[in-house]
UniProtKB/TrEMBL annotation:
Its EC number is 2.7.7.7. This is DNA polymerase IV. Keywords: Cytoplasm, DNA damage, DNA repair, DNA replication, DNA-binding, DNA-directed DNA polymerase, Magnesium, Metal-binding, Mutator protein, Nucleotidyltransferase, Transferase. It is an enzyme of class 2 (transferase). Belongs to the DNA polymerase type-Y family.
């Protein structure tokens, strides 16, 4: 076995983090559907939903009004960023007992490389179990953990048995696990790419593995090479401690080119809601908003504007989308891809603190 396959990677993911903190701190909320985010009468979006609310179909980045229609008896709670950040620091301190190689992805999830750790006799599975117990003892909250030989599979494993899960995917199990995996669950494959793959007859990892690298690159560019590796359970990305993120965004490619500016604006709003939710989870706010447009002939343009103060709220992003879209030729020219990105970050622990309410 090659050294890169001998890595021991743990992905730790807190279960319904914001909502769990609210239920921990307010006993009246325990066992009830809790939605953290903008109130239903606003243009807000859901930051996190408790598992009681998720049973009704509520999920992150969903418009609050839609969440209310699905679960009208839910309790809507304004986010308390300063509390979530403090709890996240306690969790980070727990993780630091087991490894120096920690890559935070957001306030509520992180990768650890425990390949050379001597804790728990060097067993990654025992370390993961110990981490879960230590987090609960320190914070009163529940975490799920996934263990595998690379980041791709460790992250998938952490989601297999939520909440309070612990799953392991060994090198021997990896290829078969990936083969049975729907392509929509592959890292970096969004809904639009999933539709394109399905249109090519590629529905699972096994289908993806049957295609050559050249064929996938021909259809998807550089991403095709990445898909080719993942289909074989290969992910050579190292755990990168305290990696500085320069931007955060979301984009989608359409199965049919768009020619209606109103529809384009609706798509941009959905992307902005997704980005705002992700910014909140990561405790980030940025100064620059960028809209990306790729026309039907594959020409791409970007249009940006900057805020006087850093922001992470959907309410700040949404009104600017129409302005930036109007600075392009979208409409007269058909559009195949749209994207929204926020950059110029300032962490939420600086300045006056982040107003996390997504409305």
């Amino acid at each position: 076995m090659k050294d890169k396959e001998q890595r021991k990677i743990i992905h730790v993911d807190m279960d319904a983090f914001y909502a769990a903190v609210e239920q921990r701190d307010d006993p009246r909320l325990r066992g009830r559907p809790v939605i953290v985010g903008g109130p239903p009468a606003s243009r807000g979006v859901v930051a996190t939903a408790s598992y009681e609310a998720r049973r009704f179909g509520v999920h992150s980045a969903m418009p609050s009004a839609q969440a209310y229609r699905l679960c009208p008896h839910a309790v809507f709670v304004k986010p308390r960023f300063e509390v979530y950040r403090a709890v996240s620091q306690h969790i980070r301190a727990v993780l630091g007992r087991y490894s120096e190689l920690i890559e935070p992805l957001s306030l509520d999830e992180a990768y650890l490389d425990v390949s050379i750790s001597t804790a728990c006799r060097g067993s990654a599975t025992l370390i993961a179990r110990d981490i879960k117990q230590a987090i609960r003892a320190a914070t009163g909250l529940v975490a799920s953990a996934g263990v595998s030989y690379n980041k791709f599979l460790a992250k998938l494993a952490s989601d297999l048995d939520k909440p309070d899960g612990l799953a392991v995917i060994t090198p021997a199990q990896g290829p078969d696990f990936v083969a049975a995996l729907p392509v929509g669950r592959f890292h970096g494959i969004g809904r639009a790419t999933e539709r394109r793959l399905l249109a090519l007859g590629i529905a699972t990892g096994a289908d993806l593995r049957a295609r050559s690298r050249d064929e996938l690159v021909g259809h998807f560019g550089k991403a095709g090479a990445w898909y080719h590796q993942l289909a074989r359970g290969i992910d050579e990305r190292p755990v990168e401690p305290d990696r500085a993120r320069k931007s955060l965004g979301a984009e989608t490619t359409f199965a049919t080119d768009l020619d209606d500016p109103a529809e384009m604006l609706g798509q941009l709003r959905a992307l902005a809601a997704e980005v705002a939710t992700d910014l909140a989870r990561r405790g980030l706010r940025g100064r620059t908003l960028t809209v990306k447009v790729r026309y039907a002939d594959f020409e791409s343009v970007t249009r940006s504007l900057s805020f006087a103060e850093p922001t992470a709220t959907y309410a700040d992003l949404e009104p600017r989308l129409a302005v930036l879209l109007a600075r392009t030729e979208a409409g007269p020219r058909r559009v195949r891809l749209l994207g929204v990105t926020v950059s110029g970050f300032e962490t939420a622990g600086r300045g006056q603190g982040l107003q996390l309410v997504l409305f």
